[in-house]
Amino acid sequence: MAIDHHSAGCVGLHAARRGTRYEALEPLRQGVRQHFGGFAKGIATGIALRHDHGSQYMSDAFQGELKFLGFESSPAFVRVPEGNGCAERFIRTLKENLLWVRTFDAVEQLRQALLEFRQTYNSSWLIERHGFRTLDTVRQDHLSTAALAA
Question: Which pTM does this prediction carry?
Answer without folding.
Answer: 0.81
